Structure prediction request, 349 residues.
Amino acid sequence: MFHHFRNICLVALGVGSLTASVVAPAAAQTIDDKRAQALRLTAQIQSTNQELSAKGEELNAAQLQLDAADAQLAAAEAQVVATKAAIAALKEELQVRAAAVYRRAGTQTGLEDLDARSAQELASREQYAEAQSDADNALVDQLAAAKDDLSEQRDLARSARDDAAVVRDQVATTKAQLDALSAQQQALLAQVKGEIAQLIEDEMHRLEAQALALARATYGVSAGNYQNLPPPGPSTVKAIEFAYAQLGKTYVYAASGPDHYDCSGLVMAAFKSAGVNLPHYSGAQYAMFPKVPLDGMMRGDLIVWGSRGSSHVAIYLGDGKIIESGGTGHDVHVGPIWGKPFGAVRVTK
Prediction:
């Protein structure tokens, strides 16, 4: 059926090529070429996406290394700062001690006024002070050496951190380039798919025009050739108006509205809106009214397919066109008469 054929062709965009028997050879070749280009682009995108995935994980690893280097550098800097603070505190304490010793020395009497015991105690204190001073100076030297060692470790950590940052930035740059490439490929693929869809749409329009011309030539004969036929009933005008208001609503088996319709459900609902009750079956609808020849149809007649209308029914609009609810997944639409209709009847009410 022609209205099915249009959707089949659109599905073919994704699953296969249109055959030369359906589409003109030149158009089919162009569509096939575009489809081959789309397949190549799809393969390139898949390859790029694989690279992106790998590069993304590489970037994650580089960032982890950089984070670890940052932590090591921060720890080293903290140790250097702490050691500097310890040295400063110790030096301040030594200065306080030295000042105290100096003050005590200034208050001491001459040796001639000291007895032997006092002189011995003074000598012992001076020896202790000298020993303490030597120990303090040694501690300062140790802390200074430790600070120098920690400073060296900090410099190494900073160098390692800088190296890790360089690696991370290089990986990030490569990933950004791949992201840009992927975006370009995706955009080109979308463009090619759009071109394929347009080519198919153009071909469908050409085929629709051919089908409509054939329908007009076959069924568009003036009803004046059949003077003995009854005229369409007044209900047909409102029924057609109702059917037009349902355009775009989807086909659902056994549905009669208000959101979905099958073929006979649409016809039943359309004429019900005009006060005419019809059964929900195309064959029964065909059996209710006077038969008219296909080349004598008038606007509002019912046209059926299948033996005695058993398969499908639509409302004739004139000029070779019908309004119908097509097969599953096909919405209510207007199109040319398709296939080989079984016959037509006239609603006279």
